[in-house]
What we know:
Elements (H helix, E strand, L loop, with lengths): L3 H22 L3 H17 L6 H21 L5 H17 L3 H15 L1 H18 L3 H11 L4 H10 L4 H26 L9 H30 L5 H21 L4 H19 L3 H29 L2 H6 L1 H31 L3 H9 L5 H7 L10 H33 L4 H24 L5 H21 L6 H17 L2 H11 L3 H22 L1
Helix pairs in contact: 1-2, 1-3, 2-3, 2-13, 3-4, 4-11, 4-12, 4-13, 4-17, 5-9, 5-15, 6-7, 6-15, 7-9, 7-18, 8-9, 9-10, 9-12, 10-11, 10-12, 11-12, 11-13, 15-16, 15-18, 17-18, 19-20
Amino acid sequence: MASTEIIVASFLAIMLIASLISHKLKLPYTLVLVIVGIFLTTFSISLVSAGPLQSEIQSIVLGIRGIYDQMVSGPSGGLFVGLIVPPLIFEAMMHVSSKDLKDVFRPAFFLATVGVVIATLTGGLVLWKLVGLPYYVSFLFAALISPTDAATVVAIFKRAKVPSKLSTLMDTEAALNDATAIVIFTVILTTTKVVGVSFIGSAESFAITFGGGILVGLGVAFFAELVGSLIQDRLSETLLTIFAVYGSYAFAASFGFSGLVAVAIVGIYFGNLTIKRSVGPSTREAVQVFWEVAAFLGNSVAFLFIGFRTDFFKLVSSVGLILVAYTAVALARMASVYPTLAIFNRIGDKIPMSWRNVAMLGGMRGAISVALVASIPVSATVSSGNIDTITTMVLGVAFLSISIQAAALSSYIKRSFPSSQTEELNTRLSKAVANIESLEKLRDEGKLTTEVFASELERQKDELREVLNEIHSNLGTKDILKSRASEIYNSVLTLPMSRAMHVLKIHNLEKPIEGLVDKTKEEGDESAEAAT
């Protein structure tokens, strides 16, 4: 078994390689991570007689899979969910506008609660009645696969060019629906017969889990804001946000509430209140950069683990079962998305069909479901064979979701939301500048208080910063080499003689100087002869 240091270093190296491949081939980074993980796992499994290098790869793969097995051990995904998912949710919800959230909260909340129930019932019935799988296996799989995975959804919609309200709808649903799915999954897991489920008890359990997570999130976020007002150091304030994220998750989980809901509330509170009132510009930028890096690492770890847990040969041998499971999941998503969003569109939430199609395709499955399936214990009701069947279906559906479904979503977004990125950035830039000028005018007229002016100005500065971050250019490898060579050449020119000769060369003064030197020498010789 490879050492922990080698495993960590290999993990980081794989992330870097996947990032380069993604950039060069214009492929989704998450898809590349999964494919790399599957390739290395398949390569290590297929080894019969391995040399030193192959043996080392096999040792690293086994070490990574061993770490994953330890992380997912425990209820509700164990340490994997508690350590990897919170940064993804916090970073996404931190950028959610309170105005956008207010406009889409009702459909997002409904999809995250009732929608998950509908998806679980639909998927379970399809697999049980139409496919013929055991009812317990059918509903257990339907429950753990029903939530849209936060890691996958956040990664997709960070790159997708869709309206901000639509992105908020999808991010909010993904952040909140885990609580519903975990409650349903736990209820089914602890029930010997589906018909024996107490719906009143399940509703009470959900209300406590969800409501408790909201209260803990609000409490921790408010406490962190008060403490933050006493701190002026960027590192300490960044550390405070780490406490708020993981502290809210730990506190909520210790009381039996949803830790992920608590983290989502902390993210919304921080992004819309704390960051505007109690945090300075430099600290705000430091915190945002830190959580972008944390979310990137968490996202990378989540998808790499999916790749390393996937046995390609097993997927190929079970392709029929996987396609059936994926079809059931797609039908379940359709049953929950289209009727729900159509109802809210009728009552005034204005959700066009293109948004509903994006919500349908955006129902990705991934890390959460993979973590939950690893927590199923062998019992009198669920045999090891049943667990293998569920695991195969989950990994297969996750792979198809990340690869085929993600590609279909990206293609649909390009067709349905045709807008020039340059024009969009120019519009946002012009709007931000105009808003700043308007704020200054209102302040000069005495219509805005200093506090309101400062708050709104910081908001517009954040918008400007986001636009400027998107308007960037990447140097190619050749450009970097040329640039570094030029820097070395220029540094040589800083030497006294080299610099002087360079200046002379620029002004074509080499010959006059040489003549001046010769003339001076001749005059010196003549003076010497006269003295003699």
